[in-house]
Design a protein that fits this description.
Neuraminidase; 694 residues; four-stranded antiparallel β-sheet; 12% helix
């Protein structure tokens, strides 16, 4: 799919176009209908027509203190523009505050980033850090890698499962593997480009076969298997030696342990440097001379915080390089091999830090390079010392909307479930009595940890929310128990053991319902039977099963399903399947008691209906979202269970998924939005020795 960026480009040496853009958007605020909007227009007038920037700043600052976050973010951008015209240094602080505190205001954040980039370093200062955005588009995910020159991005094609390569300057992409159908015969995972840009290492997974570490030619030449081991879940490539002769890899083993290893790119032989338990690094980096590996690791089993370690590739020594109570992670060696840059939240927000290293041991104290980097993660250094990193810019949130129970048409615009914490919420679920809404929120904070999932239980009466922190690395698709006392989720615990888990909604106490045998694997979806004595669950590529909780007996309900939803009476299931023979998606109704079922709807293309099914409260219709391959928006539809034509329900929004119907049949909750990303290059992030001595 083609990415649609909401970011505008502005002249690097003029603030004029930005002022025009903001003024035009402000004209639609209806200045006469709101006191805050009226002050906003007055401040613009003071700034643009009278040139009284100090008075304008005063008015804008009053608006920033108010409840309208959209207007507050715009006001901060204007404050920055005023300071620019006054030639005062506070402009950058205003823009940084927009990015830090108003991340859900995508347009204002984009404008603030553009102004920061335009300001650049002080005149004549060639040593100051400068940043520029080199790409913006779809979420690049955790399987992507940037080339050594910062020109190409290797990634996994989400529609086919193929390894692909994107030229960042032109946006052109090409697949390096050739599946004959989506995720058939297998799928690529992870990617790592060689220093000379000629090869891409990746993991290949195929059903019923051992995972393989493969190497493909960037020019499209055939892949070759580099390493295979029946004891591994998969061998993850993490870094490439500077001479291209070795790959630093993380071996995820089937016994739930992990190993740091070096794999020869010439003959595929592997040498294990260190064996770990169920914990494993988020990032590892090989020193330019190939003598040391830097990696992050949680020193305590019950801690989500990490420290930085350095181990010799011959295993002769290991040092805890950074020992701090904060969460220190993602180490990267600088090109000279004398320092390591890492991320840390020790100041309260995630920033970039650096520490000197000689002979694998720390030199001096860690120093802050750049604060408040938000939802970003490092990609690499190039040979000249430029630091490349990715920033997550898109937002996904839980919304609610009123619907007409007779026609299904939406009656109110979508409203965010949470106005306090936005941008990374999903998997909504109504309580059986409809008084509570639960959802999963991911946080970047000292209290919760970077990316840690939080279970939010929110009252629909007064909006008050309770937050629970179950001991899970991730959790998806909440399903409230019929008695309202617990939540069934699928995910993985802190030891990376996947399965289904039961969470007490009062205490957060978490117990496993079933575990998967393969580390990191987990059911795709689960649901309660109406009496609460059984659960239905589904693994990717496996039959849909019903499991009796008391005795563990299981039986097959459907031979295959990509998604499913249980009817209000508990007797039937709506399921979706991909018909590979006709390359179409099928929506079916099947009895829980077993049987072939009947086809309800068919649409051309794979995965059209696999975005979250739901029944209406009266059991007469099935709600579904339909994916348009030509754009990123998804429409809400319903189709009569008794048979008949489907109908659009008047809700179209990017990333619409996971529909949940309120017990009264008059409201729905859903997840919407789209994660996107930007890639940035920062020059002079790490001061040179000459600069440090000044």
């Amino acid at each position: 799919m083609t990415a649609r960026s909401r970011t505008r480009r502005f002249g690097m040496n003029s603030v004029g176009p930005l002022v025009v853009a903001l003024t035009l958007s402000a004209a639609f605020l209806g200045a006469q209908t709101s006191t805050a909007a009226g002050r906003f227009q007055q401040a613009i007038s003071l700034m643009e027509t009278k040139g009284d920037y100090q008075a304008a700043i005063h008015l804008f600052e009053e608006i920033v203190k108010g409840p309208d976050r959209g207007l507050a973010a715009r006001s901060l951008v204007y404050i920055g523009l005023c300071y620019e015209r006054l030639r005062k240094d506070q402009a950058q602080a205003a823009y940084q505050r927009v990015i830090r505190d108003f991340r859900e205001q995508a347009d204002a954040v984009a404008q603030a980033r553009a102004r920061l980039a335009a300001l650049g370093p002080a005149a004549g200062d060639t040593t100051a850090p400068t940043s520029r955005r080199i790409w913006a588009g779809d979420d690049i995910g955790g399987y992507s890698a940037l080339s050594a020159d910062g020109q190409r991005l290797s990634f996994i094609d989400s529609e086919t499962g193929d390894l692909a390569l994107r030229e960042l300057s032109s946006g052109q992409t090409r697949r390096l593997t050739k599946n004959v159908a989506p995720y058939q015969p297998g799928m690529a995972r992870f990617s790592l480009q060689s220093p000379d840009g000629k090869l891409v290492a990746y993991v290949w997974l195929a059903p019923g076969e051992d995972s393989e570490l493969r190497v493909a030619g960037a020019d499209g030449s055939p892949s070759r298997v580099l390493y295979r081991n029946a004891d591994l879940v998969y061998p993850e490539p993490v870094d490439w030696s500077s001479d291209g002769a070795r790959i630093l890899a993380l071996f995820h083993r089937k016994d739930n342990t992990n190993q740091i290893a070096i794999v020869s790119t010439r003959d595929g032989t592997a040498r294990v440097i260190k064996t770990l338990d169920w914990r494993y690094p988020e990032l590892m980096s090989l020193s330019p001379d190939g003598r040391f590996v830097a990696y992050d690791f949680p020193p305590q089993e019950d801690s989500i915080d990490r420290d930085i370690y350095v181990i010799a590739t011959d295993g002769s020594q290991e040092t805890r390089l950074v020992d701090h109570v904060a969460n220190d992670a993602s180490p990267l060696w600088t090109p000279d091999g004398q320092r390591i840059v890492f991320t840390s939240d020790r100041t309260g927000t995630v920033g970039a830090w650096v520490i000197g290293v000689i002979g694998g041991r720390p030199q001096g104290m860690a120093q802050l390079l750049r604060p408040d980097m938000g939802r970003s993660w490092p990609l690499r250094f190039d040979a000249k010392g430029s630091y490349y990193y990715a920033v997550q810019t898109g937002l996904r949130d839980v919304y609610t909307a009123a619907i007409d129970p007779d026609t299904g048409q939406t009656q109110t615009p979508p409203t965010r479930a949470s106005q306090r914490l936005v941008g990374d919420n999903g998997w909504a679920e109504w309580s059986p009595d409809g008084q509570l809404l639960a959802y999963v929120s991911h946080r970047i904070s000292r209290s919760a940890g970077q990316g840690t999932p939080v279970l939010v239980v929110q009252s629909m009466a007064d909006g008050k929310a309770r937050e629970l922190l179950p001991p899970l690395n991730f959790m998806l698709r909440l399903r409230w128990s019929p008695d309202g006392r617990s939540m069934l989720v699928h995910g993985a615990d802190r030891k990376n053991r996947g399965g289904l888990f039961l969470i007490d909604v009062q205490t957060g106490a978490t117990t496993p319902v079933l575990r998967t045998e393969v580390p990191g694997a987990f059911p795709r979806q689960a649901a309660w039977s109406r009496d609460g004595k059984s659960i239905l669950y589904l693994h990717v590529g496996s039959p849909l099963l019903l499991r009796e909780l008391e005795n563990g007996r299981e039986r097959q309900v459907a031979a295959e399903a990509a998604d499913f939803s249980l009817s209000p009476d508990g007797a039937s299931l709506a399921i979706t399947v991909d018909d590979q023979a006709t390359r179409s998606s099928v929506l079916k109704i099947v009895p829980v008691a077993g049987g072939a079922g009947r086809e309800l709807l068919r649409a051309p293309g794979s995965g059209v209906f696999t975005l979250g099914l739901a029944w209406t409260a009266d059991g007469r219709h099935v709600l579904f979202t339909k994916l348009d391959r030509n754009n990123d928006a998804r429409d809400l539809w319903w189709v009569p269970v008794a048979g008949g034509e489907p109908h659009k329900l008047g809700l179209t929004i990017d990333g619409l998924s996971e529909i949940r119907t309120h017990p009264d049949g008059r409201r729905i909750a859903f997840t919407a939005g789209k994660y996107s990303a930007e890639i940035w290059e920062t020059r002079n992030l790490v001061p040179s020795d000459r600069t440090e001595r000044k």
